[in-house]
Automatic annotation (TrEMBL):
It comes from the Bacteria. Keywords: Glycosyltransferase, Transferase. GO terms for molecular function: glycosyltransferase activity. This is Glycosyltransferase.
Amino acid sequence: MSTASPSPKISIIVPCYKAEKSLPRCLDSLFRQTFQDIEIISINDGSPDRSIDILRDYQKGHGDKLVIINKQNEGVWAARRDGIATARGAYIGFVDADDYVEPNFCEVLYKTAAISDADITVCGFWREDEAMHHVLSEELTEPRNTFDALCEPARLLELNTAPWNKLFRASLLKKVSDLRQPPPVFEDVVMHLLVFPHTNRVAFTGNALVHYLVHENSLMTSITAQQITATYEALVAVKEIEKSRGTNQIMMSLMAAEAFLHMGISLMFRVSYDKTANLGTVLRENRAYLDKHFRTWKSSDIISLKHALKYKGANLKVWLARIVYRAHLMRAALGAYRLMIEKTGRDIKW
């Protein structure tokens, strides 16, 4: 029976909800890690299936290397918060119970973090169709230099907001403010916006280490007006938290740029798939929201031709999207974007 060290170098947090089919594969991939100085914290978030029984069976074989938090259902935000509070590692990572990781996931991320003295370390991943058993895309594997977020804040736009392909310095996450009303969707965006203003160095491994499984029912789901409103309110709450903490103007400007990227582009793209939604009305409300709460989205130097030409990639795409949005051409652009995906099967990765 293996046990975790008193102060492991890494804590991996695995929230579970209706995960009985995929959970064994996920846990097996974590217990087969080449880097063993880890603890696995799995939160059974009131799951109605056999997830808690599976966790207890694994704990019998792995001792206190697997920490189980069994609680009533409160959602992934609260589950991750509970995991962070419990974590003893110097670094914290996340793995979704639907996914699994390569055997060197922890080793490569930890060594990269240690060498770079990074607050956030990012690895690439495979986006895989679970039903068809094939890779849809390989992402974040291009060579990228380590950067200082305060000196190059625009480069934070390069990062996907999912936490499951990253290691975070534990002290960074443990200082993150909680929200009274976390959003029911886009919770990953909210978490990162609470982390980014306090991040120094960001490093990349340059290789894919995570198998991110795409399910048929998760490709594109409708989003309700209530969910949109809750997400809008959560981002405003984050802005107020950071203002009260004295966050500098550079990072507040980054927050406006991120709000445009995720609310103005990603959220509107998701709404555009809802045939019951009045996209024109939602776009007008979206612009009014950005203008009121994140006024610098239109003029922020974070989204600029200078950064688009220097960094290319996500920075170039966001700069072009802002031109389209400001010209009131977003509805047509979203339609063309969806048509391209349907015809080619290829998506533009942000």
